[in-house]
Design brief:
Blueprint: H1 2-27, H2 32-41, E1 49-55, E2 58-65, E3 75-76, H3 81-94, H4 110-113, H5 121-125, H6 138-142, H7 150-160, E4 171-172, H8 176-189, H9 193-202, E5 225-226, H10 228-239, E6 243-244, E7 247-248, H11 252-258, E8 268-270, E9 279-280, E10 285-289, E11 295-299, E12 307-311, E13 316-322, H12 331-342
Parallel strand pairs: 4-8
Antiparallel strand pairs: 1-2, 1-13, 3-5, 6-7, 9-10, 10-11, 11-12, 12-13
């Protein structure tokens, strides 16, 4: 009897183990639909794109399209740079060396001289300076080459650009606010923006192929080059509330401050096509938020087509990294791809 009982138990155990493996296999996300959509859209995406999805401490999806284009290929990332710059500013806020409520005139007296003394660091990171600006276009990016330094450009913002509204009231997406904030850091530390970015963000995050180096004025708002792999390191830090490889890069409060909604639809006087309909935090767009105004899905799309996103509800970060002059009309393509991802990853939000 004991032998038969042992045989039965052995068979039951074998079946149980098989069912466990079957359950685990069934739980794996199926990104075949995302594969299909990427292939179908490759022409619209310029024929070169890398897609990465990170969750639970590892890359769970990776696809590269295009000859010699992979997660280590460098390309300009345009306004995706703003997220990096906002994080750099927040590293100083974490240390108490800077406050979001500090007036930029505390560090750049020229702003007081031209009646712009009430603009705060927070206004700069949220595009609420009130300073007139033109929409960000390729021609306007090229026009920056006339500046030899960030100091020269920011002094022009103070002395030559008009105030269209009081600070904190109207949102106009531009390169103005983040570049002012970048210049404040240079004055505060007597170090170059590029040095500070390397020391506090790119080097700790092992972003070895990411740089803001330029032959003309450094551009904190849109001048970075990076890779899909590098930028995913940054996104994983954002997803993990400031932690990367067991090391704290930013505080949880800094991440929360960056992802707090700072605008209302009525405040938004100009937004690029890629972000119309969304609100803004500090250096990043809030695609979805909870009832407390805390971002649950955040992003920082660039004019050249790269889209980095973090979805806190589903616990993942993703990036669609492109190379070329794609413009900002790819929003619907990326949002459709995100829907395919979301269908495979359960939400923890109510």
């Amino acid at each position: 009897m004991s032998v038969k009982t042992s045989e039965i138990c052995g068979k039951v155990s074998t079946v149980f183990i098989f069912l466990l493996f079957f359950q685990v296999a069934m739980a794996q996300p199926d990104f075949s639909e995302l594969d299909h959509k990427l292939e179908a859209s490759k022409k619209e995406l310029g024929g070169q794109v890398v897609a990465l999805i990170y969750k639970d401490g590892k890359i769970i999806y990776q696809k590269a399209i295009g000859a010699d284009f992979n997660l280590k290929t460098q390309a300009p990332i345009a306004s995706c740079s703003k997220w990096l710059t906002a994080a750099l500013v927040m590293s100083f806020v974490d240390q108490g060396k800077l406050s979001l409520d500090d007036k930029v005139s505390k560090y750049l007296p020229i702003f007081t001289k031209y009646s712009k003394g009430y603009i705060t660091i927070k206004d700069c990171l949220a595009h609420l300076t009130g300073i007139e600006s033109e929409p960000i276009r390729l021609l306007s990016i090229m026009g920056r080459k006339k500046y030899a330094s960030l100091e020269e450009e920011v002094n022009d913002f103070a002395s030559k650009q008009e105030i269209e509204s009081n600070p904190g009231l109207s949102f106009r997406y531009s390169n103005i606010g983040l570049n002012i904030a970048g210049r404040v850091l240079e004055v505060l530390t007597r170090r170059s923006f590029e040095q500070l970015m390397q020391e506090r963000i790119t080097r700790p995050l092992m972003m070895r192929n990411t740089s803001f180096s330029s032959f003309s004025a450094v551009n904190p708002s849109g001048g970075a080059i990076s890779t899909a792999g590098d930028y995913m390191n940054f996104l994983s830090m954002i997803l993990n509330k400031g932690m990367f490889n067991g090391k704290r890069i930013l505080s949880e409060k800094a991440i929360a401050d960056m992802q707090t909604v700072r605008t209302t639809p009525a405040m938004i006087k100009y937004a690029p096509k890629a972000a119309q309909g969304y609100n803004y935090g500090l250096g990043e767009w809030i695609l979805e938020a909870d009832e407390n105004g805390q971002g649950t899905v955040v992003a920082s799309p660039g004019l050249l087509g790269t889209w980095p996103m973090v979805d806190h509800c589903r616990g993942y970060a993703c990036i669609f990294f492109t190379k070329g002059l794609l413009g900002e009309e790819r929003k619907e393509i990326y949002m459709d791809m995100k829907r395919s991802i979301d269908a495979q990853l359960a939400s923890n939000c109510k």
